[in-house]
Structures are given as structure tokens and as C-alpha cells.
Amino acid sequence: MKTIVIANNKGGVGKTTVASQIAFYLGRAGYSVIAVDLDGQRNLTSAMGGARVVGNALQMLESGEAPSFSVVPGEVVLIEGDRDVPVSSDDTVLQGTVAALDGLAGADFCIMDTPPTFSALVYGALLTADFMLSPIELKRFSLDGVEGVLKAFVQVQEINEGIQFLGLLPSRFDAVKKNERETLLAVAESYSNLLVPHAIRNRVGYEAAEAEGIPVFEVPTASGKEAAAEFGAFFDWFIDAVEKED
């Protein structure tokens, strides 16, 4: 099973949009998928309202054990979020997270959405992961956190030597705004080898998909179709990136 953690210590950068749509697109491609909501805000749980719930994040972390379930090809199942999921630097939380997430199995992919902080919970998730993907907003104050993202990855890699950094994914990008276009160019210059060659734009189609708990490719509007084509192109890149590591 390939495990991908979606992480950034900044909030509002589109982590849930990316996590939910990756899970949905994987399911459509015939893969079996476990989506894990580790954020106390439970945004992924809301964004995947139609998925079969097979566990609760808090119960899993407190017990240090993964729930027992099966998942068939093309199915996306959900470990739902819990508002009481701990966000701390406690070693007990770290150990419980690693133990629980290490026990997850039985699917082709596991996609984890995380809270906007590099807490023990997020470090624990990264210690069990094969890949880390970091959505970023193209605003100056949001880019201040990029160095924190890279520092966290380096720290995790010292222990989890096999983890791969998929890259920085421009998210909620507004191509109409000159400052965001200029920031994208600046990021490309500074992090050329780390920048994902796709961008997720700020489209109503994504908002509609999350509000209804459905894949963006099921949103019938023009914006939904544009978003589906855009995310589909990113997804093709994503599959190539994770499969070339086999």
C-alpha cells in the first residue's frame, strides 16, 4: 500500500481539496483507497460524505490499533475525523499515531489529510508515509511557511529514510491576479526542483464538490468540468510520480 500524507503548517491552502480529489480519482481509476481524516476540523470527512466509514481517527490513535475492514478495487473508504483528535508535541501521541497508522493495510493507496501544524500527530503520520505532498498558496504570507515544510520533511527523512517528497503544489491559484502570477514565477525560481508542474486554481467547481461530498468530475457545471480537466491532468502526473518509485 502506498501512503501519501498531505501536509502544510499553513491553514487554508487547499489540503482537503487535494486529499479528497486524489482519493476520488484513485477510486475512479480502479484502485482501492483508504482516506484518513486526521484534522479535528473534519473537513475531509465532510468532503467525502458518500464514502463508507470504517473507523474513527480518535479511537484509532488512542488505542494505537488500526480498525479491521476490507476494501474492494475501485472503492474509497473513510476513517472519519474527530474534533478531539490531539494536536500536541506529546511523545505518547506520536507513538500512538505511528502504531495505529502502521497497522493500516488492505488497500492500494492510503491518503491522509492533516491539521495545519507540524504536531506529534502530523510527524507520526509522516513517519509511516511513503510520500509527502504539500499544497501551497501563492501569497507572500503563505509562502513564509515553505521553509517550515521542507525542514519538517528533512527531520522526518532522518528517521523514515524511504519517504519521498512529491513536491509543492500551487493551490487556490488565481491566474487573474498579477501578484499570484509573479509569486508563481518566484517560487519556480527558488524551488524549481520541488515545484509540481501543475496548479489547482481557485474554482467554484471545487467548492461545489466539497459542499456536496462528491468528486469534482461529477459536478455538472462549466466550472466543475474545468476543474475536473485541471485536476485530471494533475492526477496523471501524480500517478506517474508515485508509480515510478516502485
From TrEMBL:
Signal peptide: none
Any Pfam family matching the protein: AAA_31
Stored Gene3D superfamilies: P-loop containing nucleotide triphosphate hydrolases (3.40.50.300)
Domain AAA: 1-162
Protein name: Chromosome partitioning protein
Organism: Marinovum algicola
